[in-house]
Amino acid sequence: MPDTSALPVARTIAELREIVSGWKRQGFTVGFVPTMGALHEGHLTLVREAGQRADRVVASVFVNPTQFAAHEDLGSYPRQEAQDAELLAGAGCALMYAPAVGEMYPANATTTISVGAPAEGLEGVFRPQMFGGVALVVAKLLNQVQPHVAVFGEKDFQQLIVVRRLVRDLDIPVEIVGSPTVRDGHGLALSSRNAYLSAEQLEVARRLNGVLAEAGAKASAGERIDEVEAAAREALLTAGYAHVDYVAIRKADDLGEFGSGVVDGPARVIAAAWLGKTRLIDNMAI
Amino acid sequence: MPDTSALPVARTIAELREIVSGWKRQGFTVGFVPTMGALHEGHLTLVREAGQRADRVVASVFVNPTQFAAHEDLGSYPRQEAQDAELLAGAGCALMYAPAVGEMYPANATTTISVGAPAEGLEGVFRPQMFGGVALVVAKLLNQVQPHVAVFGEKDFQQLIVVRRLVRDLDIPVEIVGSPTVRDGHGLALSSRNAYLSAEQLEVARRLNGVLAEAGAKASAGERIDEVEAAAREALLTAGYAHVDYVAIRKADDLGEFGSGVVDGPARVIAAAWLGKTRLIDNMAI
């Protein structure tokens, strides 16, 4: 049982930078994993991945209000900081950074960031506020922590693409690493929002992974993308999903569409669908 | 006569970072002065100021296309890199960073930054594209150079306010220093665009400074801001200016308006006016 009292917690940018600059003076490299807390094995895999690539790992726990729309689950998003600290310590994290909202966003903050095209389709259609909020908080967190490497999960694949573009376009001096999605024994991608699911919904949720795998196999075999997408959407509704925001087969590097209508290069199948009031996303390489 | 061949020039981000990280490994602090070239004594004052605050000074020379509108003077903006290198070396600069447009903006760059309120009035009204372009290139340059301190001229006072807000809001780890405007013997603020002026226009140009000083004195004495602004606008037109974009008396910290209609705190008088096809700006503390 890790000693949670041993995990330092920084609440301010100044405290964070004092600790990180101390490590750098000692010659240590620094890895970073941004999270919104409610940690599960998926997050801990990112922390361990960062630990493979850097001497010291910082994980932030910050439920970022700017990436939630007014009708979304900001208020009910699960918060469990003491448990998160325990889990982080056990995964080898050296510092939890948990700033208050006012530390992250001073009252007269006015700057916004748009990443443009990579943020506009898919999630950008259904959660138009999200990637602006993600870009801003990720730029801020990277500049606050100043890590050598930052690890993001492929679970949020479009977010990973957006972050890579942000970092490239703003020349933020950090290496961005994408880490494969962690799944339960039935293939369900781990997510903090899975906690919202009833036992019955959980059974349906576990079908998403298989439907995407089948779609990927068909597209890979040369079937037309629009037909594969339509079939996958039907399969999800049949499986018990209440609503499908999208099932899309896109280019793996920037999630752009295949102009040819068939997969003729590295591809990703990506989806978002609803079970009751819970929205699940998943994706996989084709 | 400084040996210009002794001034190293970095053309790529990789070259720049190799040199700067070498300095940092040796324990040197780094100062940075961004310029669009066509250097004059105003720029060199910024370089010397940076040299007072850091062990090594980088100056960038980059005519940033994203801050010019289509009808503006991007094509004719003065370019004189060899002379700029010589001047920088003489002012104690250790490295000129002169990237090509394609190095700064890859073909598929999509990210944009808006600084919001501080960028919206004054220059933001008359040159609506400018501060978005400034914010993007300054964020990129700061992340490319990673200086400890960066020096900006008060000549572009709203730009200084915008840069301070950008750096604060994105938590870019750098100290921003504003350096007082350098003027010729007649009070005219030095500007690369002064090179466009005829001898006759130069005489008119030199009146701007005096008109602003008088407006500042009146406002400081308690006259109503709107009346002082109107009188200063008339004075500029009478002096021979063809058109006045604005003369404004604003709060010194964020260029916001005084709600009371009179100066009741630290203030700045700021103006933009035209002589033929040349647009001049100036400002001063009240």
UniProtKB/TrEMBL annotation, chains A, B:
Would you say which domain of life the source belongs to?
A: Bacteria
What coarse category fits the chief subcellular location reported for this protein? cytoplasm
What reaction is this protein's catalytic activity? (R)-pantoate + beta-alanine + ATP = (R)-pantothenate + AMP + diphosphate + H(+)
Enzyme Commission code: 6.3.2.1
- Pfam families according to UniProt: Pantoate_ligase
Positions annotated to bind ATP: 36-43, 153-156, 182, 190-193
- Residues bound to (R)-pantoate: 67, 159
Keyword terms of this UniProt record: ATP-binding, Cytoplasm, Ligase, Nucleotide-binding, Pantothenate biosynthesis
Q: Give the binding site residues for beta-alanine.
A: 67
Gene Ontology annotations of biological process type = pantothenate biosynthetic process
SUPFAM superfamilies with a match to the protein in the record: Nucleotidylyl transferase
Q: Does the keyword Cytoplasm apply?
A: yes
The active site is formed by 43
Query: MF terms per GO, please?
Result: ATP binding; pantoate-beta-alanine ligase activity
- Where in the cell does this protein reside? Cytoplasm
Q: Which InterPro entries match?
A: Cyt_trans-like, Pantoate_ligase, Pantoate_ligase_C, Rossmann-like_a/b/a_fold
Listed pathway(s) = Cofactor biosynthesis; (R)-pantothenate biosynthesis; (R)-pantothenate from (R)-pantoate and beta-alanine: step 1/1
Q: Which residues form a coiled coil?
A: none
Q: Write out the GO cellular component annotations.
A: cytosol
Matching Gene3D superfamilies, A to Z? HUPs, Pantoate-beta-alanine ligase, C-terminal domain
> Which residue spans traverse the membrane?
none
Additional comment: The reaction proceeds by a bi uni uni bi ping pong mechanism.
What is this protein's function per UniProt?
Catalyzes the condensation of pantoate with beta-alanine in an ATP-dependent reaction via a pantoyl-adenylate intermediate.
Q: Tell me which family the UniProt entry assigns to this protein.
A: Belongs to the pantothenate synthetase family.
How it assembles, according to the record, is: Homodimer.
Q: What is this protein called?
A: Pantothenate synthetase
- Tell me the organism: Brevundimonas alba
